[in-house]
Amino acid sequence: MVPDPSEALHHHFPERRAFFLCVSAENNMAEVAVQSERRSEGIVINDDWPGYSLDLFSYPAHYSGDLDCVIIPHGVIMDRTERLARNIMDDLGDHDIVVLCVLKGGYQFCADLVDRIKALSCNSDRTIPMRVHFIRLKSYLNDQSTEDLHIVGAEDLSFLAGKNVLIVEAIVGTGKTMRTLLKHVQAFRPKMIKVAGLLVKRVPHSTGCVPDYVGFEIPNRFVVGYALDYNEYFRDLNHICVISESGKMKYKI
Ligand code: IMP
Ligand code: MG
Fold this sequence. Notes:
Number of helices: 5
Number of strands: 12
Bound molecules: inosinic acid, magnesium ion
Shape: globular
Largest sheet: 7 strands, mixed
Distance between the termini: 49 Å
């Protein structure tokens, strides 16, 4: 019996549902369970949080004038990632997993998360044997989501059959991207799917789906850095920052 994983959320987010419900309700596949005992919204960054002045940190000079503020400094991302790795180890320790990194935005978070899980596997009596695989999605133009989500170079994922899959994504907005990806992955019949999302954005038209492991919940603003892009720019920035209006104009397509 799979417990209702949305229960833990009702107090804070009555409108939100765990991915498990979205997936199983549509496909009636209770065996593809996304279970989590400890579901959390992560570190909540409120709408009135002004961020840090860019002058307090170092960042590439080629982006001066293109950013409003640092919303999450790189060091804080790393500290939170370390804790997410611990939570994943507590839940999945001693299970083999296939880490499915969602490119391009997820590459940095995935690399750092896998690194931290590796460190825990070396320094405790529990380990998680991991394989790492990549999937590339594309849906955004400028700062707007486009209707059609592409899986770039979609390949056969039949090796996921019967496996425990951890999807690692940088940011979840409406949740449409993740829902599409979950359907795609689910078709290959894995034993279990869990989702780690570094950021969850508070958006008005959310599908209500949240990852099992959340780094930060952020305001509905367009953020870049730590591999998140605006038209392919800003991936080479360590901190997560809010793009400025002039930055949007400069790199608009
Ligand atoms: P969703 O389908 O609305 O959940 O959007 C998720 C996808 O949109 C992510 O995989 C990102 O590629 C992209 N995205 C959404 N918000 C941002 C943002 O603030 N910065 C960069 N990319 C974003
Ligand atoms: Mg993008």
